[in-house]
Design goal:
By secondary structure, the chain is an all-alpha fold. It is built from four helices and no strands. The chain starts with a helix and ends in a 26-residue tail after the last helix.
Length: 86
């Protein structure tokens, strides 16, 4: 693992400006961060029908990432043809 000294060395003369950057172009209050209430916050005012919202909520409420606001969907046919060794 790299230490902060090694990272600073690798970045060279730009290290200070890169490591201490704190001037984002998009403010944090404009971001829709994931969370357990993500469906309600983001999609409640959309024109999607209730069944679609229920199904979306079901997807986000199940699995290893349940109720985190994150969703991971892998293809069913994931096999050798899609792997790095193919």
């Amino acid at each position: 693992m790299l230490t902060i000294d090694k990272i600073t060395e690798l970045l060279g003369p730009d290290a200070d400006s890169l490591l201490n950057f704190n001037d984002p172009k998009i403010s944090k209050d404009q971001l829709n961060l994931p969370g357990p209430d993500w469906i309600d916050r983001i999609f409640i005012n959309s024109d999607r029908n209730i069944q679609t919202l229920k199904n979306l909520a079901w997807l986000f409420a199940h699995g290893r990432l349940a109720k985190t606001g994150y969703l991971s969907i892998l293809p069913v046919d994931q096999g050798i043809e899609h792997s790095g060794g193919a």
